[in-house]
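Running low. Got one?
___
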Amino acid sequence: MIQSIDQVLLASLDLVFVQDREGRFTYLNEITARAFGSSRDQLLGQALSSTALPPEVIQQLSADHREIFASGHPTIGEIRLSRFYQNTVKDYEYTFSPINSSHGVIEAAVFIAKDVTQRKQAEVALQASEAKYRTLFEAASDIILILDASSYRILDANWAAARKLGYTRQDLLQRSIHDIEATPDAERWQNLIRRMEIDADVMYEDSYRRKNGTAFPVEISAKLIEYEEKLCIQSFVRDITERKASEATLWEQQQQIESIATNVPGAIYRAILHKDGQISLPYISEGERQISGYSPQQVMNDPYLLCQKLHPEDRQWYEEHRREHSRTLNPWDLEYRVVNRYGDVLWVKNIAHFYRDAQGDVVVDGVTLDVSDRKTLEELVQRSEKSLTQLLDDLDFSIGRFRLYPNDEVATDFISAGCERVFGYTAEEMTQVSAIWVQRILPEDWVTIVKPFHQRVCDTGIGSTVFRFRHKSGQIRHIAIKAIAYHDDIDGCWVITALETVARLETVAKLHTNDRI
């Protein structure tokens, strides 16, 4: 039996030894001998003074040995030993107890010590952590509160909490969270705790009330913790007054911008052409709905939607321009056709500025305008001008627009194609050769008819006359002119005239005479 006990003790990691009344070792296990810097055989029958233990340890254990035999009561304590075979230091907690004989007389004392090194290290680390936490707790600029999870009383608060709420710290620790909430709500706290049990950390916004009654907005990060053996809530509370003010200002600015964008004709947009070839559309104004028929959200969710709505005949041309401007970053001003969601073909004008952001992506800020009405008018004007030109070309007489200068110079600004039938010269020749009038009007008619006529028309605004003109063929033609004049502050007098040959007028007169007969 004794041998079995010895085998158990030899295998134990605890230090175990037995001393008689004189302090001599009557038993010790192997690990104890090694801890004492010797062997079992060397230490049996020896006293503590024979070991390599530090003097203070020998003194402490010797005092305990005497106390046991004097009082008959066990002693407890802690010692620190160097492990000679590992060059490490170990902490032990021990119990030194008396061993009584069958007659009740103390005949020996047994020493049992447990290795508590890891626990001691953990305690030291915990103390350091708690000290560090406390330092951070007190130094934090944000409010930190520890609340009882059942009563919501404030169990702890840092100095920032007392300072920002306007209480003394002692006064604050006498209150509950409901005393500092602007709108206390017990039911909300129950819901928050349920969320903390599921999500651990919970973020939410609230409003706290200072001691002076003023309220301020806060952002709170809360979680459940164990504090002084209680289930508690740890809350980190940040004053977000400035952020809320900034958000309000930003919101107001955004509303102003949105209002401006809504009232500006067309759609204002921002597109991003990413390096990987993808396109994103972070913003487009409400005006897009009037152009394409799609809401801004639909277009932003599908940045390729508008590209798909390009007119088939304009799509390749548009893509070529987009690639070119993305490369050069030159601004663009394009007009092209799109097909809206209802199948209507529209003309749009796209004006945009290109630049590269910090990520290397190309940002396009622009505006798209519906110019369909203008395009329709332009087409109508072109057709009208074409029809008018054709009409003028088909007339037997010529219509012109001339500029009269004080020095008697006449500049032809425009003359219809009928001039070739009247004068023998093309419209191009008539407009390019400014001296043609002086050269081809007979000199006596220029002096006695044309110059006075110019003056009369400029003065009265209207007039008519007949003068002789040497046709390109050399024939002398009688030219009838009817004129309307107006003045330009810069260029002087302008005259719009109808010119035709007298021969045609005489022929028309004869026809009228024959009709009456």
